[in-house]
Amino acid sequence: MIKATPLLGGAIPHEDNIKAIHSSIPLLGQLDRLGAIYAGGYPMALMLAPRTKHGDAIRDGFYHDHDIYFKDEFSATIAMALLDSQPEKFHKVSNTANACSYNYIKQNQGEPSLSIQIIKKVYGTAEDIIKRFDFVNCAMAYEPSRNMMYWHEDALAKHLASELEILDPWMLDQPKNKEHMLI
After folding, report:
1. CA angle 54, 160, 51 (to 5 degrees)
2. What single string gives the DSSP state of each residue in 88-152?
3. C-alpha span between 63 and 46 (Å, rounded)
4. For a designed S-S bond to 67, which of 40, 49, 99, 146 qualifies (C-beta 3.0 to 4.6 A apart)?
């Protein structure tokens, strides 16, 4: 169900580009050392989104934040404390039972925007995390500390076919969601 590929040895043709784009966001390195697992839109963009003219960045509009998971609550708590300890760099936007969200405060005009969500609702391995995703298409994860990329075995085919497939229909069981759905 979940595929795992190390980003070395050419298993993914653009693996060097993936690592270069990620390492070009130096603030993420602090979280990587804590075992950050990026899941959802950011790793999906690393794998599939078109690049800028020079190939050194993902084109705008393909993801808007970094959803960051950890193996356990302790690691997530340390990550939030790290960001909270840098109020000159990170503005806490919200803190809910599900996630703690931050925006990076640009130090100069040329820096890109950066939004981070430390997920507090789900902990575990990258495989465990993406098995709980709502849609197959978004079930992708990148774990820089292990140099690994993960994805649901059907994710790439669904992207190529422009199809959306439900993986875990948890959202259908939420009464407040049902009034906003067309099925």
Report:
1. 10
2. TTEEEEEE-SSEEEEEE--SSTTSPP-EEEEEEEEES-HHHHHHT-SBGGG-EEEEGGGTEEEEE
3. 10
4. 40
Q: What long-range pairs does 111-117 form, CB within 8 A, spacing at least 24?
A: 112/25, 112/57, 114/25, 114/27, 114/66, 115/64, 115/65, 115/66, 116/31, 116/65, 116/66, 116/68, 116/83, 116/90, 117/65, 117/66, 117/67, 117/68
State both tokens at 3. 């595929």
Q: With the C-alpha atoms ordered 52, 149, 170, 71, is the resulting torsion angle positive or negative? A: negative
Q: How far is CA 148 from the centre of its chain?
A: 13
At residue 164, what are phi and psi to the nearest 5 degrees? -110, 125
Task: Kindly report the number of other CB atoms within 10 A of residue 25's CB atom.
Answer: 15
Contact between residue 7 and residue 52 where contact means Cβ atoms under 8 Å apart: no
Tell me the residue length of the chain. Answer: 183
* Structural contact between residues 131 and 1, judged by C-beta atoms closer than 8 angstroms: yes
Query: Are 97 and 73 in contact, with CB atoms under 8 Å apart?
Result: no
pTM: 0.85
Q: CA–CA separation, 116 vs 136, rounded Å?
A: 22
